[in-house]
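Predicting holo structure, adenosine-5'-triphosphate bound.
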Amino acid sequence: MIYTITLNPSIDYIVPVDKIELGGLSYMKNDYKLPGGKGINVSRILKALSTESIALGFVGGFTGKFIEDALDELDVRTNFINIKEDTRINIKLKSDQETEINGRGPALSDEEVAAFLKQLEKIKEGDTVILSGSKPPSLPEDFYEKLIQQVTSQGAEFAIDTTGAALEASLSYKPLLVKPNIHELEALFNVKLETNEEVIAYGKKLLEKGAKHVIISMGGDGALLISERGTYKAEAPKGKLINSVGAGDSMVAGFISSYLKSKDSVQSFRTSVASGSATAFSEDLASTEVIKDLLAHVQVENLK
Ligand SMILES: Nc1ncnc2c1ncn2[C@@H]1O[C@H](COP(=O)(O)OP(=O)(O)OP(=O)(O)O)[C@@H](O)[C@H]1O
Ligand SMILES: O=P(O)(O)OC[C@@]1(O)O[C@H](CO)[C@@H](O)[C@@H]1O
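Done. Tokens:
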């Protein structure tokens, strides 16, 4: 089974406005709410790719109920720990540019965290765990590492999509996939990366530190795959950018869904990029049809 872990889910409140008047009044055009959080997005795209998963994490209050109901409606399996505080609401402002304002997240009690850790005891060899996104501030800094220690000692594989120290600490546990975007890679090494060669050089450091596959996403400039099999570049398919929220999560889902079935890292990279771009070209996360259509348009070049 694939388990996605979203420690800090969100309602994504999508707010399109023609023009934002800072300090003034603007009216929304057609606002809507989506169940959000990176692992939850991964589960939704896995579903679109006919891959079963169970979404784990913490949800609470009326916002948490919205997420559970929405995922139920979408037929995405969940087994969340219900918490006392409300799940956060993240604002995604869309005008000529996209602006995101994310909540920090609720405080979790010791009992809630203990119930979650207990739940992970059922994870076993053959399972894959995908850990994605930020953690609520009340959890300790090394919480992701503790989770990784636990699930790998039980024999499971894992992929991780987070930033900074938590990403760095995960590498020695040999993640199947890490997917920093170019800005996260720059922040990790405190550098500015201008050329593909520079990006590849720093991506390779993640491979040397233990990652089995490294995908570096670069928005409309496509993505790089660095693996033992070699280094590959994919151009992003051309299209109208509608929504980049969840594009990175779609890439993670695309790669894992394809890799667990085929063990073919290059084919999985193509599915990953098609899934990312399909979401970028959609109002919500991508549908099966848009991913399939784009798959034929993703060109992958072997850079050796
Ligand atoms: N303008 C675009 N045109 C085509 N594809 C795009 C565009 N923007 C993003 N994508 C696709 O989505 C993938 C992921 O984009 P990006 O690098 O922005 O990820 P990210 O920063 O992790 O995303 P997020 O955190 O918003 O989910 C890209 O590799 C590409 O395939
Ligand atoms: O604050 P985090 O956990 O880093 O990111 C949360 C988030 O921005 O990521 C998803 C898109 O990738 C959204 O659904 C959600 O609002």
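The pocket of adenosine-5'-triphosphate (ligand 1) is lined by residues 181, 217-220, 222-223, 236, 239, 241, 244-249, 251, 273, 276-277, 280 (CB under 6 Å).
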